[in-house]
Amino acid sequence: MTHIYNNQFFDYIDGGARASARRMIGLIRPWLGMQSVLDLGCGRGAWLAEWIKAGVTDVTGVDGAYVDRTALLVPGHAFLAADLTRPVETGRRFDLAQSLEVGEHLPETASATLVDSLTRASDRVLFSAAVNGQGGEFHVNEQPLSFWQDLFAAQGYTAFDCIRPNLRHAGDVEPWYRYNTVLYVNAAGRAGLPQQVLEREIPAGTALENAGSLGWRMRRSVVSFLPRPAVTRIAQVRAAAIARQARRQEA
């Protein structure tokens, strides 16, 4: 990783992540019936904590060594420190591997490595990453959804756009999750998928399109014209304000 993310950053993202995770897990767990989950770029484990609450206790999270172990939301044995720009090996397969809003924090040269780590870990991958103009703290690799779709296709994984249609109006889900999240599945992972997932398969050669409300699209359009340092600074100021508010509410 080229940037160290501190507790303030995670204080900001964890609240929205947990609320979003509860809604999304409630949607997809009946479809996939998983018993084990790997999360690459887990932070302090907000999503994994919600998977555990939903009954999936076999979880592993991977993120940088900078994550404060005393602030983990999952058991310490469930966390693995690793550099996501390099191949991640856990020595096993999982029912589901996920990486949500992480790829934009890695250099573009590490994109294929992240996808390879995910596909070596599971036949089914839940994935989202910031699209062009989304903005955020040290977003160095914002890409259209089709960029990641092509990388997964090279590994034999097909996109199923089954999540975004169900959550596009879900106000309790952060926009980056409800507009960017796609399920990628290989031939083995396809077996047993319910009809409501199968009918959302994106045919080979058809590119996933970026989504979002009018307000979200306008926001992205404005942000795309700003210099990256300014976007990062705006994100940091906003994160600090939200993190302070969250801490006051917990006090």
Spell out the CATH superfamily.
Vaccinia Virus protein VP39
Task: Please give the domain count.
Answer: 1
Cα separation of the termini: 33 Å
In terms of per-residue confidence, which ranges show pLDDT below 50 for 5 or more consecutive residues?
none
Order of helices and strands: HEHEEEHEHEHHEHHHH
Work out the radius of gyration: 17 Å
InterPro entries: SAM-dependent_MTases_sf
For the structure shown, list the relevant keywords.
251 residues; alpha/beta; Rossmann fold
Please characterize this protein's 3D structure:
The chain is α/β, with parallel strands linked by helices and 251 residues long. The protein is built from 10 helices and 7 strands. Helix 1 runs parallel beside helix 2 and helix 1 crosses helix 10. The radius of gyration is 17 Å and the shape is globular. The protein has one domain: Vaccinia Virus protein VP39 (Rossmann fold). InterPro entries: SAM-dependent_MTases_sf.
Brief digest:
This protein is α/β, with parallel strands linked by helices and 251 residues long. It has helices at 7-32, 46-53, 111-121, 145-154, 164-167, 175-180, 187-190, 195-198, 214-223, 228-250, and strands spanning 36-40, 58-63, 79-81, 96-100, 124-128, 158-160, 182-185.
Task: Furnish the topology, listing elements before pairings.
Blueprint: H1 7-32, E1 36-40, H2 46-53, E2 58-63, E3 79-81, E4 96-100, H3 111-121, E5 124-128, H4 145-154, E6 158-160, H5 164-167, H6 175-180, E7 182-185, H7 187-190, H8 195-198, H9 214-223, H10 228-250
Parallel strand pairs: 1-2, 1-4, 2-3, 4-5
Antiparallel strand pairs: 5-7, 6-7
